[in-house]
Design brief:
binds zinc ion
Amino acid sequence: MTNDLHARAETLIAKERVEGISPVEQEWLGKHLGECAQCTESAHAMQQALRSLRTLSISVPRELAARTQLRVWLRAQELQAREPRWRLIWALCGASWVAGAATAPYVWRGLEWIGHRTGMPDLVWKMGFGVWWALPAIVAAAVLLMEGGEGTTRKNVNGAA
Ligand SMILES: [Zn+2]
């Protein structure tokens, strides 16, 4: 067996991995590998090298994917822990707005009466009515803001106490 044949085999082995080889070349290579232990070994070595390369390139995104998954899971846990409080806030807000709508005429009349009795300008008691109406929203906004900066808020509270 001449060196030319081994060289051709080696070229074909590399070519097969990169761009593919024709059926004729494939047949020739198969036959040569069947007869030549040296080329079979080099083909195996190349396959092994390619495999380790492939696992290396796969292991990086896989680890990244695991980390991303962990982050998503942690985020989901965080949201889940926060959800009941959000629901409670919105439920309180809703209840308060419904109660507000039901009692609005009385509050309006009451404020109007107080306003006229004390002689305060119309604008003042009308603004008071506006604040009373917006109070649930203001409270909810304050609570949500506190939730957003929970760490600093807690520190401030502790510092004040
Ligand atoms: Zn050979």
